[in-house]
Amino acid sequence: MAHNLLKGKKGIIFGALDEKSMAWSTALRCVEEGAEIVLTNAPIALRMGEINKLAELCKAPVIPADVTNMDDLKNLFTKSMEHFGGKIDFVLHSVGMSINMRKGKPYTDLDYDFSHKTFDISAMSLHRVLQTAYQLDALNEWASVVALTYIAAQRVFPDYSEMADAKSMLESVARSFGYHYGFKKKVRVNTISQSPTKTTAGSGVKGFDGFMSYAEKMSPLGNASAQQCADYCVAMFSDLTKMVTMQNLFHDGGFSFTGVSAEVIEQMEK
Asked: Known catalytic residue: 134?
């Protein structure tokens, strides 16, 4: 059900690859709630994914941008403002990649060149996005920026490798830049720590199906879906959350604050 929560707002959605993507679901919900959007992803992801299908559904242009390239980001924000005829009201950062995990390298045997790329793509890219917007004065007052993260930033998940470090850095960037952007333009910057979600990227983590089942049993409300994450993003982009900034917001059915559940105990006692 739509409530016109984003009527008249304009935003950029990073990271939609296919229908499993949280960014894909969020793009559809933003448009349903009255927003106009621009879609963006790295050129290679645009070739591999189905973003043109989403662009047609959302009646949105696609502007390629490598999040590690400042010229690409400057072009993205400049062209987006030209398209909208003004500044931007919200941004979703849904970007992450670990080459070490793709190559099957454990945390105790990292390739550091791969790790640098992981940190640049998955964490420092948020700083690049915010710095570009800040210097171009591309965001309206009370604009909202949301980056998607995971609880591995606070807890150990052995097979999440250096992505856990990247998510910690991502959350730190959101706090630090949120401070400066709040004073400068009243712009809000937050991270959403989502339940394990069966996206194309998430499914590549070793033991993912088993962990999804465990998280479901540990969460009083169960795992949050990509569609529910999209709903939360809409709420964070709306004017109903104008005083929320620099926060890491857990959207995980209560997993983050559950020590152990009766269902898990019963399973262990079998």
From this structure: no
**Do residues 226 and 25 lie in contact, with contact meaning Cβ atoms separated by under 8 Å?**
yes
Q: Which of 11-20, 86-95, 226-235, 259-268 comes out lowest in average pLDDT?
A: 259-268
Whether residue 61 is predicted with pLDDT greater than 90 in this model: the reply is yes
- 18 pLDDT more than 60: yes
The answer to whether the annotation marks 15 as part of a ligand binding site is yes
Res 123: pLDDT? 98
Query: Residue 44: what pLDDT?
Result: 87
Residue among 67, 254, 18 nearest 151 (CA): 254
Whose structure tokens read 């242009």?
61
Closest CA to 256 of 202, 192, 201: 192
Question: Is 150 annotated as catalytic?
Answer: yes
Candidates 107, 150, 179, 214; catalytic one: 150
Ordered by where they begin, the domains of the chain are 10-269 (3.40.50.720)
C-beta atoms surrounding 110 within 10 Å:
18
Q: For residues 36 and 84, is the Cβ–Cβ distance under 8 A? A: yes
Q: What is the DSSP letter of 116?
A: H
Structure tokens at 141: 């007052």
Options 134, 160, 179, 181, the catalytic residue? 160
Q: Collapse the DSSP code of 264 into the 3-class scheme (helix H, G, I; strand E, B; otherwise coil) and give the result.
A: helix
In this structure, how many other beta carbons lie within 10 angstroms of the beta carbon of residue 247? 17
DSSP single-letter state for residue 42:
-
